[in-house]
Specification:
Blueprint: E1 11-17, H1 21-32, E2 40-47, H2 53-66, E3 71-76, H3 84-93, E4 99-102, E5 108-109, H4 113-123, E6 127-136, H5 142-150, H6 155-158, E7 174-176, H7 177-183, H8 195-205, E8 209-221, H9 231-245, E9 253-256, H10 260-268, H11 271-275, E10 277-282, H12 285-290, E11 292-294, E12 305-310, E13 318-320, H13 330-336, E14 346-348
Parallel strand pairs: 1-2, 1-4, 2-3, 6-8, 9-10, 9-13, 10-12, 13-14
Antiparallel strand pairs: 4-7, 5-8, 11-12
């Protein structure tokens, strides 16, 4: 542990801020209301905010420090933001706590968040610790919220390839500074870069695990100020990660979905991975009657023709390109009839 003056801090709340005046009072009040008994600080990095964010932070600095919570403030006021990856890295660098608790400026922590995640982090030193969340507004992104809150402990590691991204969401992350240094900083590419997802992948590559505290410890707001990552970039990273982590373990596999998503995955694979695809499978009789998918853009001669089968006639393992929780349970029921083990016999990719 690094010394800090006369006091060793157990953890730092990492708060990147950009034009968050509307939410900061509620966010910072939730820092003050933590029931953790140990020592903590707040580390804020202001990424060129143009609103009254800094005035609000200065006001709360006084309140928090009166309460025994030191506040470190960094930032810049150049004409353009440097992005959320850069802001988080800077907030970490200027902080000194042994543990890091990530927070977004539009979210609100429940009073027991830090205490419960700190207990979990001590027990699981190489895990990213997350928690369950409550969404605000309540009915925004219902599928995603259910997914975040209901994944089993095994699925926290098997469902890391889906379009939902990390199986515990970044504004709930909590882990040690030592582990952060081991995994390495957030990508600072700025706009369009999925820095949470890339950090999460690096974490898994280093053998990191995932643990969720099963309490609702965060009010997770459906608004974001930083520009969203580019969809094509995210897709490419996900395909590469699948090819790196799963496909080398399989001699052949079936893509579940002969429609647009399945074909897009096939076309995105390297030639080596494409050769392992023995079939597409589906429930749609029309697609199955076509008999096969011909990959017209292939450089190979003759052009690959991949059979399209009914899912019951297909061979596992499967890469599943069907979105979960969308078909009123029909897809999930079909999958159950095959009695397969997630991770070994199939991976969800959609």
């Amino acid at each position: 542990p690094e010394p800090m003056g006369h006091m060793h801090l157990e953890f730092s709340i990492i708060l990147p801020v950009r034009n968050a005046e509307q939410w900061l009072d509620e966010c910072l009040r939730s820092v003050l209301q933590q029931d953790f008994e140990g020592t903590m600080e707040l580390s804020v990095f202001n990424d060129a905010s143009k609103d009254k964010s800094m005035t609000i932070i200065e006001k709360w600095k006084v309140k928090l420090e009166d309460f025994g919570i030191p506040v470190v403030i960094g930032g810049h006021d150049s004409s353009s933001p440097r992005g959320v990856g850069y802001s988080k890295n800077q907030a970490v660098v200027q902080s000194t706590g042994s543990y890091l608790c990530f927070l977004d400026s539009d979210d609100v922590m429940m009073p027991q968040r830090v205490r419960l995640q700190y207990e979990a982090a001590v027990q699981h030193p190489t895990s990213i610790i997350g928690c369950q969340v409550r969404r605000d507004p309540p009915h925004s992104t219902e599928r995603y919220t259910r997914w975040i809150n209901q994944l089993t402990s095994d699925q926290l590691l098997t469902q890391v390839f889906t379009s939902h991204g990390p199986t515990v969401i970044m504004p709930t992350w909590f882990f040690s500074r030592a582990w952060f240094s081991h995994v390495g900083p957030f990508d600072e590419g700025g706009q369009g870069v999925p820095e949470d997802m890339l950090f999460f992948y690096k974490h898994l590559r280093k053998g990191g695990k995932v643990f969720r505290v099963d309490h609702n410890l965060l009010l997770y707001r459906y608004i974001r100020f930083w520009k969203h990552a580019d969809r094509t970039t995210i897709w490419t990273h996900r395909v590469h990660f699948l090819e790196e982590r799963v496909l080398p373990l399989w001699e052949s596999f079936t893509i579940w979905n002969a429609g647009k998503q399945g074909r897009r995955l096939y076309r995105s694979l390297t030639t080596t991975s494409q050769r392992k695809v023995v079939a597409f499978c589906d429930v749609d009789e029309k697609k199955i009657r076509k008999g096969f998918y011909c990959y017209e853009d292939s450089q190979e001669k003759p052009k690959p023709q991949v059979p399209i089968l009914h899912f019951q006639a297909a061979q596992p393992p499967f890469v599943i390109c069907v979105k979960l929780d969308l078909t009123g349970g029909e897809f999930e029921d079909n999958l159950k009839t095959l009695h397969l083990q997630e991770g070994r016999d199939f991976i969800h990719f959609s």
